[in-house]
Amino acid sequence: MTSKPAPSASRLSHSQRIQQVLEAEIFSGALPPGARLDEVELAARFQVSRTPVREALRHLASAGLVQVRSRQPAQVVELPAHKLVEMFQVMAELEGLCARLAARRITPAQIAALNALHQALVALADTDRVDDFYEVNRRFHELIYEAAQNEFLAEQTRALRNRVGAYRRLVTHRSSRRAGTLDEHAQVLRCIVAGDEEGAAAAMRDHVNLLGEKLLDFIALFPRMAPAPASRPGRVALAP
């Protein structure tokens, strides 16, 4: 099953383009949890009126990425500890199901690609290229979603992963977490290649489910590891 191609940039409205830029900045951590999104500042940045900015923020709010507040600037959603626990529990089950189906349906080409991504992570783990590690890690998980060959499942898993993406990115800054990722991915990969559906699902759940001590460590580290405020972005001209 193939997904529909994304609309070309020329066919997107101003609000859609603004939404895409802000989504990318939220997912990358350039706009960290709690970041302020002022309509006037965004309108000046994108060189548009406040109407498309307001529409873009509404769409981001409906996706759970932004909180729109009465008479105050919108802000990137901050997730409380209990909410993170709940979301990681659900995500662990969704990604476990992806791994289970991938063990049954993955193609030889996808196995080769998954092995290549794992080796790329091994090469990056002991470097200071944390953002590169995070991106390759994201692609590793994305390939498993694709290998499951269930488009609806992939969409739901990806949507939830995006909502906690900024928090997962912060965990990646821990060298011990990167080392743990390698071991956990290796186990997931072995089970998928062997066609071990139950083993793949269990290994992926264990990898994703940041509960107990791991989650407490994660939450405790978050305030100290929050990205420094980015410099004010330059203006973005949107084509008519």
Automatic annotation (TrEMBL):
Q: Does the keyword Protein transport apply?
A: no
Show the Pfam families listed in the entry: FCD, GntR
Q: Which GO terms describe its molecular function?
A: DNA binding; DNA-binding transcription factor activity
> InterPro entries attached here?
GntR_C (IPR011711), TF_FadR/GntR_C (IPR008920), Tscrpt_reg_HTH_GntR (IPR000524), WH-like_DNA-bd_sf (IPR036388), WH_DNA-bd_sf (IPR036390)
From the broadest rank down, the organism's phylogenetic lineage runs:
Bacteria, Pseudomonadati, Pseudomonadota, Betaproteobacteria, Burkholderiales
PROSITE patterns given in the database record: HTH_GNTR (PS50949)
The protein's matches in Gene3D superfamilies, at most eight in alphabetical order, are given as: GntR ligand-binding domain-like, Winged helix-like DNA-binding domain superfamily/Winged helix DNA-binding domain
Q: Does the keyword Acetylation apply?
A: no
Instruction: Indicate what this protein is called per its UniProt record.
Output: GntR family transcriptional regulator
Positions of the HTH gntR-type domain: 12-79
Q: Which UniProt keywords apply?
A: DNA-binding, Transcription, Transcription regulation
SUPFAM superfamilies listed in its UniProt record: GntR ligand-binding domain-like, Winged helix' DNA-binding domain
